[in-house]
Amino acid sequence: MLILHNVVKTYAGKASVTALADISLNIAAGEMVAIMGPSGSGKSTLLNLLGGLDVPTSGQVLVAGCDLAGKNEKERSLFRRSKVSYIFQAYHLMPTLTVSQNVALPLHLAGISTREIERKVAGALQDVGLESRADHLPDELSGGERQRVAIARALVTDAPLLLADEPTGNLDTVRGVEILQLLKTINRARGTTIVIVTHDQKAASVCARLIRLRDGSVDGDSAQSGDAA
Hints:
The protein contains seven helices and ten strands. 35% of the residues lie in helices and 27% in strands.
């Protein structure tokens, strides 16, 4: 599913900054992987490359067989619509749209028919247990419910890759555990490849693999039980 080969990412400025230094990784389809590391270790840069939001300075980034390093912005945008979905710490819900309308947004962008959108949205809301909140606005929901809406929006496109950036960062402990268990269920039930960038050891512990970054390089890559939460 994900192959990085000798990936380097540098940012030019008064002084060139190397965010990623010659990283090579393989993440198989269906894996649930956590990426951890201190601030400045390259976690967010790596996530952006995996999702096609940025391209490497050198090296290959293969996602579902597509070399994103060789694609322009328009090509990468079209790729993301069908292959990649995102969950963000800050939810990024439209405040004037209902839960259903927020979840439906990526489907409208893809030109899906109204009937198919209704079917997919209903299914995604059922998967996250929010059928009864479909007509509510985001400010009528708890933080945990808002994150479930964001997860439903990520699921609705049936993208094979889900990237989560600090998905429990704005939640209390109880709600955070609920979201982690939901992501784990999605991984097992759908076979979705999930990559979580986090500072939270508890969030990382639900993943079967932990990759640690330091100073733009892989500092550790190990299997773990993935049973905690």
